[in-house]
Design a protein that fits this description.
Mean pLDDT: 94
Shape: elongated
Number of helices: 13
Helix content: 40-55%
CATH class of the largest domain: Alpha Beta
Radius of gyration: 22 Å
Number of strands: 5
Amino acid sequence: METPPAFAARLVWWRKRRGLSQLQLALAADCSQRHISFLELGRTKPSREMVLRLAAALGVPFRPANEMMLAAGYAPVWSETPLDGAALAPIRDALNHMLAQQEPFPAVVVDRRWNVLQANRGAAALVEFLVGPLAPGAALNLADALVAPDVLRPYLVNWTEVVRYFLRSVEADAVADGTAETAGLLQRLLGYKGVQSALASAPPDVEGPVLPMHFRKGDAVLRLFTTIATLGTPQDITLQELRIESFFPMDDATRDQFRRWAAA
């Protein structure tokens, strides 16, 4: 039985995107190079198990792995449960706990493309201080807020350094997930004024163990570093794409300012 053309094309695309030869992929997927060649030429049809093995060997995330299954003629494997669905109630409890534990310092839950799904009071206080309160229910994309010229940039003293580092992470995401949505996000960010010159500028001398986000508004100065956490064993597209970003103060003045906001 012949390989569906759509699957053959996707297999070739993912293998080349990962920089693997047919032999390297065959070894990773525990099959023969001849079998990989036949799949890519459309001369044989993969089993359902083989599609899953190839997706795993190529490090294909759940969403495009489902697309590979469909292209091979099989039903999708991975579900995509709404974050507010009943099945994810334990996950929401865990996320709420993490956000609460981070108080009074900021923490947010974002999806793969940096849309804010949840935020704690510390995050709201920081945003309100810098740009004013958001309208109830207003959508916020952290990537756009960071890179665009008129949101956080006017208050981020070291914007050039931060945006250079951040865009490298978005580029890595685009390579990793291979989706049009992440590629579109990257292109949108690269199109903002000043981004290309920031990427072309020489990196600064390293000063300290992490790159801080150095905010200044009026007389107030905030210096924060961030950590990003993911769920360790996701079995759902929504959960695989979740990230929890937490902000921590780098000095006593920043720590005290967030405590004053929390006490107000």
